[in-house]
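Supplementary Methods. Inverse-folding protocol.

Structures were first reduced to a discrete structure-token string of length 270. This string, shown here, constituted the complete conditioning input.
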């Protein structure tokens, strides 16, 4: 009996782990000054908030792709022998977004030389046909809303109608949202996990606090197959994650500091 209960608990934990995946991605192409693609070029992706580093190499067509990324700001760096190092900074990636940084053109020179490029503040979406709108953390903090109900901010998004009285938060307030004329077939996720009561499909289990939200995004149409549970619109919320934290080295300790990722953070230990 205990073994059966343990197996059920293990299966539940594994399913929860998969459900928490927020599948954003970033892609691009590496080319030389003659616009010819550069295969097998090492590409490094660094998340600015946590310091997480990922590495890939370009394929035969010069393309690279980073999958299963969390929302945040990133830097892409390309190091190829015989060319100057190329760094593209401040690439902002939203939740469930496929971001194409375009063609990164290398310049002849030493790898010790570096060319830094600032990413566009309002990039054009070319990697996905989805229609979506986002309310970022700055808007959530700057706009005063009675009741501090996150669904009240949905009125800022074109195609969304909200008929609820948002004096206080309520699990039933989700049903008052209409996306492009559809009032029922909606889904609401928090950090990639469905938060809708599957028995009623009209209420939610809980509503995150406004101060804990990094971004609120609504996918209205043409979104990818991974969002196939509901056809009337996808409302996604991403909560804030912790930054890199460096602890002071204790006196009398000899050694080199090392960074260790713990629960989305990078803790420096000495």
């Amino acid at each position: 009996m205990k073994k059966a209960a343990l197996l059920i608990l293990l299966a539940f934990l594994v399913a929860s782990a998969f459900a928490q995946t927020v599948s954003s991605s970033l892609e691009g192409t590496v080319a030389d000054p003659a616009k010819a693609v550069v295969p097998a070029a090492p590409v490094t992706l660094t998340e600015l908030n946590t310091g997480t580093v990922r590495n890939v190499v370009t394929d035969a067509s010069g393309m690279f792709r980073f999958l299963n990324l969390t929302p945040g700001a990133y830097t892409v760096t390309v190091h190829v022998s015989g060319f100057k190092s190329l760094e593209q900074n401040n690439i902002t990636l939203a939740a469930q977004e496929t971001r194409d940084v375009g063609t990164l053109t290398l310049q002849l020179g030493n790898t010790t030389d570096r060319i830094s490029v600032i990413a566009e503040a309002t990039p054009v979406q070319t990697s996905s046909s989805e229609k979506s709108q986002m309310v970022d953390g700055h808007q959530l903090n700057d706009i005063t809303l009675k009741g501090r109900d996150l669904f009240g901010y949905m009125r800022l998004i074109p195609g969304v109608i909200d008929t609820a009285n948002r004096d206080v938060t309520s699990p039933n307030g989700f049903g008052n949202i209409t996306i492009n004329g559809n009032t029922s077939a909606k889904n609401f996720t928090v950090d990639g996990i469905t938060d809708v009561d599957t028995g009623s499909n009209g209420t939610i289990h809980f509503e995150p606090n406004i101060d804990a939200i990094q971004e609120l995004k609504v996918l209205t149409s043409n979104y990818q197959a991974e969002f196939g549970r509901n056809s009337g619109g996808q409302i996604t919320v991403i909560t804030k994650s912790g930054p890199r934290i460096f602890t002071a080295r204790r006196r009398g300790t000899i050694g080199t500091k090392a960074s260790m990722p713990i629960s989305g953070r990078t803790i420096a230990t000495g």
